[in-house]
Design brief:
It contains 11 helices and 16 strands. By secondary structure, the chain is α/β, with parallel strands linked by helices. Helix 6 links the parallel strand 10 and strand 11. The longest helix is centred in the middle third of the chain and has 13 residues. The protein is globular and about 60 Å long. The structure holds nicotinamide-adenine-dinucleotide and zinc ion (ZN) (2 copies). Nicotinamide-adenine-dinucleotide binds next to helix 5.
């Protein structure tokens, strides 16, 4: 079968590889769509922490079951599914609490023992499968994975108040966080992005304001829209040198700051404001199984995410798909590879 592999720095090659043979607890999926994600770009640029070329791209996927392992129950050939792309060891302290995302021995697509999703056939353990309703297009089914990141980012907050949320950066993750926040009942949603297209997209999704952080006073606007109080929660979904200070300044006393962006450089942070205002900072890493379930339910429930698929390219054009997201020469949110 064909597989799109990163074979060198910013180089994607279509290679012939053996199709995976599903284990007894696994199914084989005929891949219909796979999503390009920021973590694929890390592999592409050669900056991924542990994945090195040659490696098959992808972890976001939707497709049809074509083969069932002998122990698999509850699924049949032809079922349309998406996959929660991590599998915990099942025995560590984190797995026992359902925190597969924190398991240090977890397996993920594209790491030894599990192929990536930019392929014609992908194997997955039955316990990682989520059915997609017939009415859900495959490309939208592929978005369950990044949507689960957004669900988790908000589920990590303890603040019961939902008057105002600020989302700093409305790329794929920020926009999906906005959608989930709206569904959760946040009354006022304020967003920022340096890209005009993303700000427009955010306004279309119902943001009270979508601000340019370079030319506009984000903190003043947040104060204005919250009667001087500040937001209950700020989600950091972009990396920039002053973004933590900005998040803290947007948030009220006893408010929270959720870090989703993977900021791998050291950036300065005036932490006194966190102390003075008794704010809480938390990190959010991928998702727990319950977040993935919630995201799959939202998609099967008909949540409209169609605007976010901005480009679709065939598997053979995976190089272009990666270039598109990497260079952002066009307006882009989510690039989908069709197989
Ligand atoms: N924690 C997790 O599990 C997880 C999962 C997926 C992605 N991420 C991380 O989340 C971040 C966002 O991912 P994404 O896929 O949405 O990326 P993206 O590139 O689609 O979005 C980032 C957005 O931030 C905007 N931006 C740049 N500078 C900004 C600034 N100073 N203020 C506001 N916006 C600014 C960009 O224009 C872009 O629209 C990345 O750091 C990614 O690595 C984390
Ligand atoms: Zn992803
Ligand atoms: Zn574990």
């Amino acid at each position: 079968m064909k597989a799109a592999m990163v074979t060198g720095k910013e180089e994607v090659t279509i290679r012939q590889v053996d199709a995976p043979i599903p284990g007894d607890d696994e199914v084989l999926i005929k891949v219909k769509t796979a999503g390009v994600c920021g973590s694929d770009l890390h592999l592409f640029h050669g900056t991924h922490a542990f994945r090195k070329p040659p490696a098959v791209l992808g972890h976001e996927v939707a497709g049809d079951i074509v083969k069932l392992g002998k122990n698999v129950k509850g699924y049949k050939i032809g079922d349309r599914v998406t996959v929660e792309p991590h599998l915990g060891c099942g025995v560590c302290e984190f797995c026992k609490q359902g925190l597969v995302n924190l398991c240090t021995a977890k397996k993920a697509p594209g790491t030894p023992g599990w192929i990536g999703t930019f392929v014609e056939y992908f194997n997955a353990p039955a316990k990682t499968l989520y059915k997609l309703d017939d009415a859900i297009p495959y490309d939208i089914g592929t978005l369950v994975e990044p949507l689960a990141v957004a669900v988790h980012a908000l589920a990590r907050a303890s603040a019961p108040a939902k008057d105002c949320i600020v989302i700093l950066g409305v790329g794929t993750i920020g926009l999906l966080t906005q959608v989930v926040a709206r569904e959760m009942g946040y009354k006022t949603i304020i967003t920022t992005d340096t890209a005009p297209f993303n700000r427009e997209m955010s306004l279309k999704q119902g943001a009270a304001a979508a601000l340019n952080p370079i030319t506009e006073d984000v903190v003043a606007k947040v104060k204005e829209l919250t009667g001087g109080r500040g937001a209950d929660l700020a989600i950091v979904a972009a990396g920039a040198p002053g973004i933590l200070d900005q998040a803290s300044a947007c948030v009220r006393k006893r408010g929270e700051i959720g870090l989703v962006a993977m900021i791998t450089e050291k950036i300065p942070f005036y932490c006194y404001s966190v102390v003075f205002n008794e704010q809480t900072i938390y990190g959010a890493m991928t998702y727990e199984t319950r977040d993935f379930e919630a995201a799959a339910d939202m998609v099967n429930g008909g949540l409209d995410l169609s605007d976010f698929v901005t480009q679709k390219l065939s598997l053979d054009r995976s190089q272009e798909a990666l270039d598109l997201l990497s260079q952002k020469k066009e307006n882009v949110v989510k690039v989908i590879v069709t197989v």
